From TrEMBL:
It is an enzyme of class 2 (transferase). This is NAD-dependent protein deacylase. Its EC number is 2.3.1.-. GO terms for cellular component: mitochondrial matrix. NAD-dependent protein deacylase. Catalyzes the NAD-dependent hydrolysis of acyl groups from lysine residues. Its main location: mitochondrion. The lineage of its organism: Eukaryota, Metazoa, Ecdysozoa, Arthropoda, Hexapoda. The active site is at 162 (proton acceptor). Belongs to the sirtuin family. Class II subfamily. Zn(2+) binds at residues 170, 173, 221, 224. It is found in: Mitochondrion matrix.
């Protein structure tokens, strides 16, 4: 009789394993410098998010740059610490990269120098928490980020909405390359340049002196000699149709949507929320600052995602 009233031993053991795993995830203080100012999370917020998750059987996660700030990667739009607030940097535009060889050369030189720092960033407590919830809720993760941190944390069912910085594609024959392999080739082509930088940006692009760019040799496709491009949807480009359809299907197959660390300023992310609401899904948002959909959802929590998710697991 007792077993019908209390959780099983396996339930407790699984939770102990999860708690131990998450407790080993540390967040060095220096990686938190890009986290915006935020209020402490309240018990009410935790309870509300817990109820939202408990009431979901198949959850869809939509993640943005705000979850990677705790891994030391800045977002674009946060006050004071976001990339736009600290610099005049403008992300590479798709048509400029496609049209102009000098833009391609400049981009690859900067990406080459910034790659070492960018590629070594590690997942944080949010990524690991999502991974655990992904298993429990049979869920899908749609991320606007190109930093590969969901995969590093162990998530399997991930749709990278804007592509990934860890894969490279030829613009001519569409051959794919691993970004680490391209870095090795770039080191051989540009042995006179030391590929290190103390700065970091959401897309891996960093500022470097003009003289480095002038003497830089960009990578070319080994199959056809065409220009290579990170498999990222640059600003001004469209998300590939097949990926859009995959996201639409994931939304329809889920019963709820949890948005984490995204302002939803970019329409490709915002339309996911619109679709979920049109289909009658439960939608919740956890983000430090305001978002484009705050007025549309019943649950918006203004807090650091890393302060909530480990607790609701």
């Amino acid at each position: 009789m007792a077993t019908s009233y209390f959780p099983s031993l396996r339930y407790f053991m699984n939770n102990i394993i999860i708690i131990r795993k998450l407790s080993t995830v540390s967040t060095p203080t220096e990686t938190l410098k890009f986290v915006p100012k935020h209020n402490p999370v309240s018990e009410a917020n935790i309870n509300n998010v817990q109820s939202f998750i408990n009431n979901s059987k198949k959850m869809l996660f939509l993640t943005g740059a705000g979850i990677s700030t705790e891994s030391g990667i800045p977002d674009y739009r946060s006050e004071e610490v976001g990339l736009y607030a600290r610099t005049n940097h403008k992300p590479i535009q798709h048509m400029e990269f496609i049209k102009y060889p000098h833009v391609q050369k400049r981009y690859w030189a900067r990406n080459f120098v910034g790659w070492t720092t960018f590629s070594k960033r590690e997942p944080n407590i949010i990524h690991y928490s999502i991974c655990e919830l992904e298993k429990e809720k049979i869920s899908t993760v749609v991320t606007q980020n190109v930093d590969n941190l969901h995969y590093k944390a162990g998530s399997q069912n991930v749709i990278e909405l804007h592509g990934t910085a860890f894969r490279v594609i030829c613009l001519k024959c569409e051959a794919f390359y691993d970004r680490h392999y391209i870095q090795e080739r770039l080191i051989q082509l540009n042995s006179h340049i030391t590929p290190t930088s103390t700065t970091i940006r959401p897309d891996g692009d960093v500022d470097i002196p003009l003289e480095i760019i002038e003497g830089f040799k960009p990578p070319l496709c080994e199959s056809c000699g065409g220009m290579l491009k990170p498999d990222i949807t640059f600003f001004g480009d469209n998300v590939p149709r097949a990926r859009v359809e995959a996201v639409k299907s994931a939304v329809s197959e889920s019963d709820s949507l949890l948005v984490l660390g995204s302002s939803l300023t970019v329409f490709s992310g915002y339309r996911i929320v619109l679709q979920a609401l049109e289909e009658g899904k439960n939608v919740a948002i956890i983000n430090i600052g305001p978002t484009r959909a705050d007025h549309l959802v019943k649950l918006k929590v203004s807090a650091k995602c890393g302060d909530i998710l480990p607790l609701v697991i």
